[in-house]
Amino acid sequence: MNEMDAPHLAIVGATGAVGREAVTLLESRGTALQSLRLLASPRSAGSTIRFRGEPVTVEPLSRASFDGVDVAIFSAGGSISREFAPQAVRAGVTVIDNSSAFRMDPEVPLIVPEINGERLAEWPGAGIIANPNCSTIIALMAVTPLYRAAGIDRMVISTYQSASGAGAAAMAELEQQAREFVEGRPLTTKIIDRPYLFNVFSHNSPIGEDGYNEEERKLLRETHRIWVDDSVRITATCVRVPVLRSHCESINLTLRRPLPEARVREVLEGAPGVTVVDDRANNRFPEPRDASGRDEVLVGRIRADLSQPEGFGYDLFVAGDQLRKGAALNAVQILERLARSPMARSPKPAAS
Amino acid sequence: MNEMDAPHLAIVGATGAVGREAVTLLESRGTALQSLRLLASPRSAGSTIRFRGEPVTVEPLSRASFDGVDVAIFSAGGSISREFAPQAVRAGVTVIDNSSAFRMDPEVPLIVPEINGERLAEWPGAGIIANPNCSTIIALMAVTPLYRAAGIDRMVISTYQSASGAGAAAMAELEQQAREFVEGRPLTTKIIDRPYLFNVFSHNSPIGEDGYNEEERKLLRETHRIWVDDSVRITATCVRVPVLRSHCESINLTLRRPLPEARVREVLEGAPGVTVVDDRANNRFPEPRDASGRDEVLVGRIRADLSQPEGFGYDLFVAGDQLRKGAALNAVQILERLARSPMARSPKPAAS
Predict the structure, then answer these.
(1) pLDDT for A273-324, tens place per residue?
(2) Which of A185, A201, A275, B230 is deepest in the core (most CB within 10 A)?
(3) Of all helices (H) and strands (E), which one includes residue A233?
(4) Which residue in the list A203, A238, A247, A248 is annotated as catalytic?
(5) Contact B305/A239, CB-based, under 8 Å?
(6) Which residue ranges form the domains of chain A, and what is each CATH number?
């Protein structure tokens, strides 16, 4: 990436859990930028966030926020994206949207760079690129290489999702509940409407008539969209566990064509962005504490499913940092990929 | 049950998590007993546990402990059961064993009273009856009624298991880790060899060459034994979550014969020992906090699996108190059932 390609970047929702992680990643990765603008609600504006040694003042998000911006990462929820992303696009900005608002829009590419990043090679500039849902990204990082190697007939997924998916306030509430438990006080349940500490509960997203919640529906629909393959049969049960920031998923696969277990392991060991953690002797497998703060999705418990004909069934257990690969890292990777694309930067009416 | 049938009972492992729960249950249920003897390791002996208003002194377990005892509930681990249960049987005692030591012995009935309690009707007295593993009991309480109604071709289970399955010390360590987290101190990892608070990890039982751990293998083998049906295909992924005392399980079922969803719900609502908690509008489903201290296994997230032909696939999410139905309650129910059996009490050499 040369300096000519480095974009003027804005982050919408800069004070949220994903926004803050994005700032950290841009700094640690040394992502080339001409400038960084941090945007948030008027309530959060005015604070400063350090970036590359300088304090950056968080500005209130407005229609004028996108003047001179090339790319904006949105992570402030669906309603902010629905209102401001089209305005940003009209101002010539490429929006990388972390919300679910545009993920199923046929005009909007749904991108995991390691999986379908080649779709960005001819990005025309100005428009929306969607980041998939965290659970989808984390599952597909491990499963896509196997999908390519043998096809997937069916997936049964049960998730173990952390507080970070519900935002920084949910993480803080879980920590607060630990303090309250230790002090013998009643648990505060403002953000999550039930005790979360030492508890497990069905994912807090709306449930449709078919009984699936929105998180489960995302896993189904987004997988079909990313693979451009509606024929894969998927069911999912999405569950929150009292963990701060990484998601785990128990994934049962039925392949279309048989693969020996050694080959499954080989495929996963060669998968980009994936680290195999599968030490049976020492009972070391993917854990959210180990995945947190890491870029890679961890995969383990790799074994032939005894309930399936030989070579067709596999069980996996994955862990990935919801804030990194599940959200901010994926967005930053898209940003970096765009900067490498010759067509990424179109002429702008108001480029600074 | 009349007083003539009431047994002289011993509890082996009386100071452990399951033993203490058994004492609590015998008191709250008013289970008819002639006497109660509490047995534990020499280390734990000498303490007293209140039962029906009287302090009962915990005695050290020895060969002589079973004189005058009719029934003994063993919950002190496999090695104690292997050493002392045969001795107790030779002394004319009926052993209800909560360990895995004898579960696969073809001479030993493996009993969940609601499922196959009729096998006790002709119990000859003196011998071992095995309590299944907690995860097996909790899953089968919900699934057996559907197995009876439509047959089960295949089950894919992912568990969310609590600290109580690893014993009282593991529960105490998880609580201690909460204190240490709040105080900013390093987490103690004596009982579980890794941080448990805010973490998830693969079940800490030995792993075989096929990659399944012992807990998963129990679910497979014990289900086949309880149903007397090896044809059911099962895979399981057993995982510990930072919860104190109830297990959850995400269960994906493939039925042999199609059932409409309304009928699945009806079957579960009529199942003994099962309570349906399935409020989609308010996102209320089985949670370990709600299951703890309850006798029933909670079942919810009941929905047709979108990845299967209509009527053949269902997803369920269950929660059950590992110490109650998963262990102590099941043993006490077996005890109560034995006392109702006319043949349960054989002549004893040393009955007091």
Answers:
(1) 999 999 999 999 999 999 999 999 999 999 999 999 999 999 999 999 999 9
(2) A201
(3) strand A233-237
(4) A247
(5) no
(6) 3-131+328-340 (3.40.50.720), 135-322 (3.30.360.10)
